[in-house]
Amino acid sequence: MTDVAPGDGHRSRRLRNGLLVALAVVMVNLPWVHSVWQDHRLDRDGVDHAATLTHHEQRDDRLLVSFDLKGTDDQPAISGEARVDRATYDEAVASERVTVRALPGSATVWRVEGEVGSNLGLVVTVVADVVLLALVLLLVRFGSRLRQEMVLVATEDLERCPPGSVLDQVDGLRFVVCGEVQTIEDDAVVLDLGDRSVRVILDGHHNPAGYQQPVRATGTMRS
Questions:
Q1: Residue range 70-98, pLDDT digits in tens
Q2: In a domain? residue 100
Q3: 73, 96, 115 — which closes off a domain?
Q4: Distance CA 178, CA 6 (A)
Q5: Does one domain contain both 159 and 214?
Q6: Torsion over CA of 7, 184, 215 and 9, rounded to 10 degrees?
Q7: Shortest CA distance to 198 belongs to which of 174, 221, 170?
Q8: Does some domain include residue 191?
Q9: From the CA atom positions of the chain, what is the Rg in Å?
């Protein structure tokens, strides 16, 4: 048997859903935030190095340069490729050098001077945030309808009861259910048990409870 205060189920569900949404927001935005943070660190603490041009190539409208930066006591060796603008490309080809700004002690946080950035990461993040927002709005609007609903056919009059959520199997398909009245229909009431709802078909029996009042129903559960 499950017996909890009705408010506890709602608060627990809201807290759990809130934590899941917060986790999804963090996972969606973390890559872009991390990239912005790395750019900020490069702007603030990065050191410029002259790296050797090892290869250059034009692919359609993309100008690519590859480079090697020898390691020192303060800077690990770096090899990489970047897309650059026309002026940087022409200068690199002429001088066989490119300027690489790197974070001291790091072989992974760097960028080439004149590098052409991409907005793909930002676009993907914004699209993912919009999709996530739409899902949250749908859950807020229709969440109660998406929860599992059970159907109980009452075999006796419903009775007022103390607040609490109860789902007790008496025997076979015979159950005793307690919950707050969520919806009142012509020949049925929907009880809110926190993590699920139960539609009680009155089948001619009396319901003494009003909206948001606790009531106990005894009957047969439809499979």
A1: 998 888 999 999 999 999 999 999 999 99
A2: yes
A3: 115
A4: 10
A5: yes
A6: -20
A7: 221
A8: yes
A9: 32
pTM above 0.70, yes or no: no
What does the block give as tokens for 98? Answer: 């490119």
**Domain range for 204:** 148-221
User: Which residues neighbour 104 within 8 Å (Cβ) at sequence distance 6 or greater?
Assistant: 45, 46, 47, 74, 75
| The pLDDT of residue 189 | 95
Quick check: is 34 in a domain? Answer: no
**157: Cβ contacts below 8 Å, ≥ 6 apart:** 205, 206, 207, 208
Q: Give the pLDDT score at 144.
A: 54
pLDDT tens profile 20-46: 778 888 888 888 888 889 999 999 999
CATH number for the domain harbouring residue 194: 2.40.50
User: What phi-psi label fits residue 46: left (phi over 0), alpha (psi between -120 and 50 degrees) or beta?
Assistant: beta
Structurally, how many domains does the chain consist of? 2
Torsion angle (degrees, nearest 10) of CA 7, 10, 12, 14: -140
Q: Domain for residue 138, yes or no?
A: no
> How does DSSP classify residue 116?
-
- Angstrom distance (rounded) from CA 95 to CA 53: 8
